Amino acid sequence: MSAPLRFDGKVVLVTGAGGGLGREYALAFGERGACVVVNDLGGDIKGGGKSSSAADKVVEEIKAKGGKAVANYDSVEDGEKLVQTALDAFGRIDILINNAGILRDRTFGRTSDLDWDLIHRVHLRGSFLVTRAAWNHMKNQKFGRIIMTSSAAGIYGNFGQGNYSAAKMGLVGLANTLAVEGRKYGIHCNTIAPTAGSRLTQTVMPPDLLESLKAEYVAPLVLWLCHEQCQETGSLFEVGAGWIGKLRWERTPGCIVRRRNQAMTPEAVQQSWDQICDFSNATKPATIQESLSTMVEVLSKVDTEKGVVPNPTSAMASAVSDGNSPLAAVGQKLPEMVFSYSHTQCILYALGVGMSTHEPDHLKFLFEGHEDFSCLPTFGVIPAQASMMEGGLGSIPGFNFDLSRLLHGEQYLELYKPLPTSGKLVSQAAIADVLDKGSGAVILLDVHTYSGKDLLCYNQFSLFIVGAGGFGGKRTSDKAKSTVSPPDRAPDAVMTDETTRDQAALYRLSGDWNPLHIDPSFAAMGGFKTPILHGLCSFGFAARHVLKQYANNDVSKFKAIKVRFVKPVFPGQSLQTEMWKEGNRIHIQCKVKETGAVVLSGAYVDLHGTEDSVSPEKPPEAGGLQSDLVFEEIGRRIQTLGAELVKKVNAIFAWEITKGGSTAAQWTIDLKTGTGSLHKGPYGGKADVTMTLSDEDFMDVVLGKLNPQKAFFAGKLKVRGNIMLSQKLETILKDYAKL
Ligand SMILES: CCCCCCC[C@@H](O)CC(=O)SCCNC(=O)CCNC(=O)[C@H](O)C(C)(C)COP(=O)(O)OP(=O)(O)OC[C@H]1O[C@@H](n2cnc3c(N)ncnc32)[C@H](O)[C@@H]1OP(=O)(O)O
C-alpha cells in the first residue's frame, strides 16, 4: 500500500467551505496536516445573506481533530482579502480550491441580466480574482496547485442553467490557460466536474440519490490533484459516487472544403458533411500547437482533390488501396501557375541560400542598385516549385499523401537564359513518372517555366515519399535525369559555408512553406528530432559555391545542375562543397562539415565556356602576381608604408592624375590564399576589380587614415571588374620588405 498522502507545511484556501463539497475538502486537508483557510460568506444558495457561522463551524471541526485552520468570511469577489488571510495566518498559499458557487436557475428566455451577471461574478470572476491574488505567490515559490470547479451542466448543457453552464465552461478555458502559463513555475491547474449532494444540488436531486452522491466521494480526487507528487495539469475530470473519469477532446479527421482560387461555399460544406462529422480515425489534440499544426497542413494541401487531411500513415499505398493508383497520375498536368516577382524575391532567395554582405562579391545578388545586380540561377526552382506548392500536386488523382513523409529526393535545373531580376513567369508542370523504390515512392515532376513565349528554364523534381513504396510500380525510368559520380581523385577545390540556425526560417520565405522545416511537432511526425533544412537550400549553397569558384559569379555561365539529397541537413550545420572540374562540368559532392556525412551526392553543375573563364588550375594572366596576400593585407601594408613611401609609390606607379582631380589606380591582385583554395578573400577567389578612388581618398588610404574596406562600404571606393596587384606594386612591397 502506498504511503498516506500528507500536506504538512502546505497552506490551503478553500472557497465556499462552509458546507457540502468545500467543507469536505477543508476537513480532509486539515486531517492530513495542511493549514486551512475556510472561506465562506455564509449566504444562501441564491447568493443572498451573509453569516460567519458556517466557516467558523468548519474551522472548529478541523481544530477539534488537531488540525490548523482559520476562517474568512469575504466574498470571492474580494479575492485579495481571502489570500491575505492565508498569508497573515500561515505566511504562504500553496493550494487553492475554487469551490464557492451559487445558483440562479432560469430557462433561457427568462434569464435576466442580474441572473446572468450574478452567476458569472461568483463562479467565473470570483475564481479569477482569488486565483490572481494567489498566482504571484505560487509563481515566486515555484509551486502551486489550483482546482477549478466546473459542472456537467457546462460540459453537456442542462435545462434551465444557461447562466451557470456558461460560467462553468468558462472555468475550463481559464484552467487550460493557467495550466499552460503555470507549467514552468510548478503551478498545476485542473478542473473537476463533480456530481455530489450539496446545497446546490439538493433542490434538483431526489434525496435517495443525494445520499449516494456523498461529498466524501469527490474530495480524494481533489486531494490527489493537489499533492506535490501529482504531475497532472490542464485536465478535466468528472467525479461522483466513487467514480472518476478523465475527459479530453476528440476531433474528426475532417475535410478540406475549399479549393485554391475558388470561393468556399455552404454547398461544399453540405456535400462533405458526413465526412466532416465522421469520427473514424479521430485524433485527440491536446494542445493548441497540435490543433494548429492541422491548419498549417491544411494550408499546404488546400488543393487536394479529395480534401482529406491525411493520417500520418496514409500515403501512396493507401491511395492504391482506394483503387486510385498513383500510376494513373503519370502524364497528368498540374494547373498552369503564374509567378510574379520583383528584385525583393531575388534578394530574399539569395539571403536564404546564405549570401551575405560580409562577402562584397555577394553584393551584386543583394543590392538592387548594384550595376551588375543579378538573380542567382538556382532561383529558377522557385517559380517551378510554386506551381506544386500552390498549384496543387494534390489535385492529381492518387496523390493524397502526407506532407510530413515527403522528402525532396533529387533536383535537376537547366537554364536557357539568365533569369531576369523581376518578371511574370508561367510554369507548366506534369507528372513525368512515378517509381516504386520499395522504401518509398518517387514522383518525377517536370516543370517548364516561360517568360512570355521564351522558355526560361526546365526543372525536374524527384519527390521521395517515405513509406509509400510497394505499390507494384517500376523502379527506374528513362525520364529521370541521372546523377553522375565524381572522378576518382581528391577534389580540385573545396568551399565551406555555415548555415545559420534560422536558415530554414529564412529560406521558406521564398515559397516552400512546408512545415517540416520550421515546426518541431510536424518534423517529429516525419521522424526528425528537429526541423530539417530545405533540400533546395543546400542545393542553392552548393550551386553558388561552384558559380563563385569557376564562373566568377557570372550568372550567364550557368547552364544546369543536378543533385541527389541523400541525408537531411539541419539548420546551423556547415556545408562543405567538394568540386572536381572536368571541362565544362563541375562534379560536386556536399558534406556536413561537423559530421562528415555526405548530404548531396551524384551532383554536378554544367557551365558555359569555362575553358575561357577563370579556373583554379589556370591563374589569371593580367600580369598578375602569385601572391598569398589577401586584400586586407594589401590595405594593411599600404597603410604601414606610411608617408615616406608616398613619393616612391607615386613615382613607380605613375598614377594618372586627371586635371579634374580623380585618380584611377589599377591593382592586379591574385587573392590566392596559399592553401590552394581561393575563396577566403573578401572579394572571393579570383576577382578582377578596378578600384577607383579620388586623389584625396587614395592618399588617405596610403597614409593609413582610411581603411580601403571602409572606403568601399562608404561608397567612396568604386569596384568594377577585377582586383589585380601589379608587378609594380609587387616591387614596392618587396622593396618595402627589404627596408
Ligand atoms: C507538394 C510540394 C512539393 C514541394 C517539394 C519540396 C519539399 C521540401 O520542402 C522537402 C524537403 O526539402 S526535404 C529535405 C531535403 N531532402 C532530404 O533531406 C532527403 C535526404 N535523403 C534521405 O533521407 C534518403 O535518401 C531517403 C529517405 C530519401 C531514401 O533513403 P532510403 O529509404 O534509405 O533509400 P535507400 O535504401 O538508400 O534506397 C532505396 C532506393 O531509393 C533510391 N533513393 C535513395 N535516395 C534517394 C533520393 N534522395 N532520391 C531519389 N531516389 C533515392 C535508391 O537509389 C534506391 O533505388 P534503387 O535501388 O533503384 O537505386
From TrEMBL:
Classification via SUPFAM superfamilies: NAD(P)-binding Rossmann-fold domains, SCP-like, Thioesterase/thiol ester dehydrase-isomerase
CDD domains: HDE_HSD, hydroxyacyl-CoA-like_DH_SDR_c-like
GO molecular function, one term: oxidoreductase activity
Gene3D superfamilies from the UniProt entry: 1.10.287.4290, Hotdog Thioesterase, NAD(P)-binding Rossmann-like Domain, SCP2 sterol-binding domain
Associated pathway: Lipid metabolism; fatty acid beta-oxidation
Keywords: Fatty acid metabolism, Isomerase, Lipid metabolism, Lyase, NAD, Oxidoreductase, Peroxisome
The Ketoreductase domain, residue ranges: 10-203
Xref: InterPro entries: HotDog_dom_sf, KR_dom, MaoC-like_dom, MFE-2_N, NAD(P)-bd_dom_sf, Peroxisomal_Beta-Oxidation, Sc_DH/Rdtase_CS, SCP2_sterol-bd_dom
Annotated TM spans: none
Gene Ontology biological-process annotations: fatty acid metabolic process
Record GO cellular component, one term: peroxisome
Any matching Pfam family: MFE-2_hydrat-2_N
Disordered, as annotated region: 474-496
Protein localization: Peroxisome
Similarity remark: Belongs to the short-chain dehydrogenases/reductases (SDR) family.
Family matches, as PANTHER family: DEHYDROGENASES, SHORT CHAIN (PTHR45024), SCP2 DOMAIN-CONTAINING PROTEIN (PTHR45024:SF2)
Name this protein carries in UniProt: Peroxisomal multifunctional enzyme type 2
High-level lineage: Eukaryota, Metazoa, Chordata, Craniata, Vertebrata
